[in-house]
Fold:
Amino acid sequence: MTLDTGAPVVTGLGFQQLTQYLNVDPGTREFKVSVDGGVTTLLDTSLGLATGTDYTFIVFGPVEAANTVLELDTHLPIPNGGFFSLRFIDLAAISGGIDVYLTPLGADISATAPVIANATYGGTTVFVPVTAGNLQLRVTPNGTKEVVFDSGTTLSFADKTLVQAVAFGKGSGKLVNVAILNLDQDGTGQIVDNLLAEFKLTNASSVGPLNVFVDGTLALANVPFAGVSNYVKVVAGTRTISIQSAATPGANLLTLTPSLAPATDTSIVVSGPAGALQGLVLTDNNLPSAAGHARVRFVNASPDLASVDVYVNFVKLFSAVTSNSASPYAELAADVTGTAYEFDFNIAGTTTPALMLPNVLIVAGKTYTVYVVGQGAARQGVVVGDN
Structure:
């Protein structure tokens, strides 16, 4: 990031990284945020900085629609003894706002009121006094008790301090991560990883309905052929995911050990016959797509299609998507009421069609996965809205 035309004041700052306070000259300054070593400018905006004042400058959102927040951090009232003051910034694009809970470890939030209610996207709440101490932080969509962020352990909030918490997305359409930023002399802070992650299963196998176990516990039952489950919340980290036939349970047909990162969504695709099941683990990007676009990827989960070319409205978009693999995401122009596309799959390098999907409706702001499943005459397409 550069201010005006000077040398960069911040270089190489990665996603989920933060600086402490930096000394800069006051006045109206031009903030330029770039990536690729300064080659690509994401943001160019002018903001006023007052003398003797601390600020927090946050860059958020997807690269194609990046945005900023500048928050005043000084000249704020100090809370009374026994309390700290918390404000919350929602940058996670959860529809309908979010509620914030701070409780003793393991407390049941079903009978607890949030300390902050209905923090709205892009907005900053007022400071709220909270009893100081070691507290578990949880976040839910406004008016619900569904936890979309859980610190898992307690966080220490000291007496007479000022804290701002920032919720942001990492790729999940529901789960969030949180940054805790201390409004102290240096501007210290930390990223608090979510205890939770999500995964879902697509059954492209010839086994029939599948049961899915996570670390030995049944998580999904009777997922049919060409069926796609809803997302299931699990503890983030390396999980043992076992696949069994629902008709003949007890024997693991496939075992996977994916690493599920905090606050992320993962799709697991199972294909092939009972004796040779194979799994594909995909990291999902369920953040809102760019304005006027939908995000789409294509998965070749057909065992008898060694490689396919993907055509969108009769124009080749991806070449040679091999069996048990996925294309990158593509951003396709779409309307909020839906735009119809034709998705065709040809045997790679030929004009021989393997599958044609006409009149597929996609909606702006949404993310989709298009699966090719089955073999021969039983081959079919499965279009799934992921967020």
About this structure: The mean pLDDT is 96. The longest strand covers residues 40-49.
